[in-house]
Fold each of these.
Amino acid sequence: MPSNCWDKVVPHYLDFWVPRLIPYHEDLVRKSVPRPGERVLVTAAGPGAELLPISRAMEGRGELVATDTSEAMIEHAKQLIGPAEIKMPIELRVADASDTLGRRWDLIMNAFGMWQLEDRIGTLSAWRDALADGGRVALLVWGPPDPDGPFELVGSSLQDLEPALGEHTRRRELAARESMATMLEQAGLQLVRHAVVRNVMEFGAAEGFFKALFSGCSYVQFAETLGRERIEALAQAFYARLSPPSPRTPLSFAPAAAIAIAERAG
Ligand SMILES: C[S@@+](CC[C@H](N)C(=O)[O-])C[C@H]1O[C@@H](n2cnc3c(N)ncnc32)[C@H](O)[C@@H]1O
C-alpha cells in the first residue's frame, strides 16, 4: 500500500477515528508509563493524538519525537500540538517507522500502525537495537477478534463475498498474547506485559460505520480493487448480519485492542 494513501484520508481519519481512538491512547500511556526525563520515540504517529497523553505523563520533561511516513499527517500533528498547550517541545519528522534517527530511546511506541508495516520483524529489530538499557517497546493493535463485533462482521462478509481479500481480516488474531510473543521473539524482544483493553465506540447508524471503515487506508485499497457495485454488495451483506438487519441500525460496541510491552531479550 502506498503510504501516501494516508495523505489523502487525513480529514476522514480526524472526523471518524481520532475521537474514538483517544481512550485507547490513554490506555497505552497507562500501561507503558512514559516517565519524566525519558527519551520517547512515537512511530506511525499519524495526526499525533497520542502525543497529548504521552507528554502529560512526561510532565514536560525529556525528549519526545514523533514520526510518520505521511507528510499530511505530520503537518496536521504540527497544527494539533501548537494550540494544545503541550508544555514540552515535540520534534515531528517524516520518517519510516523503522528509522530510529540514529539515537537511543527509553521507550519506542506504536499505536495502530503495526499492520501498516511491510517488514514488521525488521522494524521491531531496528527498535530493539535502538533501545537504551532498560528500554521498552510499546505496541497497541486491534484484536483479538470478537465474533459478533462490527469490524468482524464486515470481515466475515468480505471473506464470504471476496475470499481472495478476506485474509486481511485475520490480522486481529495476531493480537493474542501468544502471537504477539512469537512476533516479538523473532525480533529479539521479549513480551513483558500483555493487556487487552476495550472502550465503547458508538455509531448512530451502521452505514456511518461502514463509510468510516472504508475511508481509512486499511480498507480503502479494497474499495479501489472491488469498485462501487461490489462494495455496495459487501455493505448489504454486512447490514444483513446486524440485529435488526438494516443500514440504520445503531451500533454500540467495545472493540478489543491489545497492548504489548516488550524489552530486549536475554
Ligand atoms: C491507523 S494510523 C495510526 C495513527 C496514530 N498512531 C493513531 O493512533 O491515531 C496508521 C499510521 O501509520 C502510518 N504509516 C504507514 N506506514 C508507515 C511506515 N512504514 N512508517 C511509518 N508510518 C507509517 C500512516 O501514515 C498512518 O498515519
Note: The chain is about 40% helix and 25% strand.
Amino acid sequence: MAYILGEREFWGLPFKVSPAVLVPRPDSETIIEAALALLADHARSWRLLDLGLGSGCLLLTLLHEFRAARGVGLEVSEDALAVARTNAAALKVGDRAELLLGDWRRPGWRDRLGGPFDLLVSNPPYIEAAAIAGLMPEVSRFEPKLALDGGPDGLAAYRAIATEAPRLVVPGGRLLLEVGEGQAPEIYKIFQSTGFTAEAPWKDLGGIDRVVSLKY
Ligand SMILES: C[S@@+](CC[C@H](N)C(=O)[O-])C[C@H]1O[C@@H](n2cnc3c(N)ncnc32)[C@H](O)[C@@H]1O
C-alpha cells in the first residue's frame, strides 16, 4: 500500500517511498526512542551516522529531532539514495545531512565517512537469505532484496559494521542496531572483542528485543 501511495509515516513525519526502499516500520522507531533517551541534550551538535539509509527514516528523523546535529548516511543503492535525498530536502534537514553512495562489503568503505561519530545507527538487512522466499508476499515479492538479505545466517552486515565500528565512534559514543527477533545475543557476541560494552537491548511495542545498544 505504501508503494502505491508513495508515502509512509514514520515518527509522525511523512517519508516518500519507492520500490527501491524498505517501507519504514514502526519497530524501527525503537532506535529513535533509544537515541532520544541516550543523547539527553537534544540541543547539542551531535554527530550521527546511519549505515543503510533506505528512505532515510532513521537519520532524517534524528536530524529533525536533534536540531543542531549533523549526519552522514551511507547507502549502496543509487535509487534508494535518491529517495533519501528527496526526503532530506522535504524535511528541511538536507543542509545538515551528507548522504553518500557506498558499500560496506568493499574494503575502505569507512574512509569517506569522516567522523568519528557520537552515535552510529543502523537497520541493516538481517533476514537469512534462504528465509526470504517464505516471508509474507508483500515483503518477499515487493521489497528490495538488498534491504532484506543478511547473508546465509542473516548476520553479514553486523560483522562488516563490527570490523570498522571502533574507528567510527568516539569514546563514550554509542551504537544502536536494529536486529531481528532472537538475534540480539548473536549480535552482542559479534561485538564482544571490539571494545564496545553491551547495554540492555531496547524492546519494540511487541515486547521483542529489537535494538541492540553498545557503548564504546
Ligand atoms: C533494512 S533496510 C533499512 C532502511 C532504513 N534505514 C529503514 O530503517 O527503513 C537496509 C538498507 O541497507 C542498504 N544496504 C544493504 N546492503 C548494503 C551495503 N552493503 N552497503 C550499504 N548499504 C547497504 C539497503 O539498500 C537498504 O536500504
Note: The helical segments are 2-5, 29-38, 57-65, 78-90, 137-140, 145-148, 156-168, 184-190.
